[in-house]
Every structure is written in C-alpha cells, then in structure tokens.
Amino acid sequence: MIVVLDTNIWISALFFGGKPEQALLKAFEEDTIAVCKQLVEEIEEVAVRKFSQQAGPVRKRLDELTANALWTKVLGELKVSRDPDDDVVLECARNSKAQIIISGDNDLLDLKYFEGIPIMSAGQYLKAR
Q1: How far apart are CA 100 and CA 56, in angstroms?
Q2: Environment class of residue 65 by beta-carbon count within 10 Å: exposed (0-12), middle (13-18) or buried (19+)?
Q3: Using 50, 70 and 90 to split pLDDT, how confident is the model at 83?
Q4: How crowded is residue 24: how many other Cβ atoms within 10 Å of its Cβ?
Q5: Is pLDDT above 70 for 128?
Q6: Is 2-127 in CATH node 1.10.579.10?
C-alpha cells in the first residue's frame, strides 16, 4: 500500500514520538511511503527553524527513512486548499496513486477523502488493517 505522511506527522514522529512515530514506523516497515522534494524540504526546514537542528543530521535521517520511498514529482498544479503546503500533500498523494494520506492537520482531516483517497490520523492508520 502506498501512503503519504503529512509534514506534521513526520515532525511529530521525529521529535515527539507517540502515535505519529508508530505510524511512520508502520508505514516504513509495512507499506510504501510516497514523498516528494517539497515535503522533504519542508520537514528539513521546520526541523532546523523550529527545533534548532543541524541540517546535515536531519537530512541523513530523512535519507534513511526515504531510501525505499516512492519519489513523486509535484509540480504545484493543485490549488484546492487554503494552505499551499496541504496542496503539496494532496498532489503527492494523487501523483503517487497513494491509498492513504496520514495527517494531523485538521483542514485535511476534515476533508476525510481526496479523490477517493482516505485521509486519516496516525491513530486511525495504526488501527487500520
């Protein structure tokens, strides 16, 4: 199964643990994580700016976690959300033919589905299957 994890799931997983970390590990071990350049750059930028991390170690960890990922091209063509970062997540999911989007963002969670792709929280993903 192909899954896209929103940036907030990645950040929560890397810095706080809990269900986001469990969801990331489940996706890493059991599914295929789809990513795009924009998502990875945002994760790195937030880690450096908000958590005072060095870019090098963050990039190394992301490289490890995305080594077997499905890299997807996102051109910024989708404009359905009020937040352009949400559009990146949705376009990544559409272009990668993902079956699940995992997010902690209420705007995305309120959609429940995007083009037939369920949008669920980390907890919902952990209970699925």
Answers
A1: 30
A2: buried
A3: confident
A4: 23
A5: yes
A6: no
